[in-house]
Amino acid sequence: MATGRCMKCKEQVEIKDGKECVTKNNMRMLKGCCPKCGTKVNRILGKAK
Ligand SMILES: [Zn+2]
To answer: What pTM, to 2 d.p., does this model score?
Structure first.
């Protein structure tokens, strides 16, 4: 399960409803939200091909 850093809780949280996407600069990102406060949490997964 993926985790990311929540800016609001200031701790590592499990990413809820995570969706993978590719940014303009060709990086794979997992976008989701914090299960505790609902703030958006992103995690960079690495370079896309
Ligand atoms: Zn949070």
So the answer is: 0.81
Q: Ligand 1 centroid vs 49 CA: distance in angstroms?
A: 31
| CA 36–ligand 1 middle distance (angstroms) | 5
- CA 20: distance to chain centroid? 9
* Residue 30 near residue 15 (C-beta atoms within 8 A): yes
pLDDT, tens only, 18-38: 999 999 999 999 999 999 999
**What residues make up the domain containing 42?**
3-47
22 alpha carbon to ligand 1 midpoint, in Å? 23
Number of domains in the chain: 1
Confidence band, pLDDT 50/70/90 cuts, at residue 1: confident
